[in-house]
Write a structure and sequence with these properties.
The chain is mainly β. About 5% of the residues lie in helices and about 50% in strands. The protein contains one helix and nine strands; from the N terminus they run βββαββββββ. Bound molecules: zinc ion (ZN) (2 copies).
Amino acid sequence: MTSEITGGCLCGGVRYRASGTPLNSRICHCRQCQKAVGAAFNARILFPADQVHLEGRHKTRHSSSDLLRGFCPDCGTSVFTHRLSSDWISVTAGSLDRP
Ligand SMILES: [Zn+2]
Ligand SMILES: [Zn+2]
C-alpha cells in the first residue's frame, strides 16, 4: 500500500510530504530527542530520504556526527531527523497534518 502524508511546522514556513510505505514509526525516549523536541519522547515516522520532499526554509543541527535534526528557524518546531549513514529521514508525528 502506498500513500502520501503531509505536514509542517507550527507557522507553516516548513512543509513536507512523504510518499510510499514508511519503514516504521517509533517513539524515542533518548535524552537527545527529549532535548530536541522539548518533551518526554519523540514520536516519528521513518522513510527512505528520497521519499521525503521538504519545502521552505529550515535549519539543521547535528546532534551526533550521524544525525541531523531539522527545525523551523522561525517557530522552532522540530520537523525531522536525518540519519546520514542509512539515509533515512523521519518526520515528527506531531507535525503531521493528520496525526
Ligand atoms: Zn515554522
Ligand atoms: Zn532519540
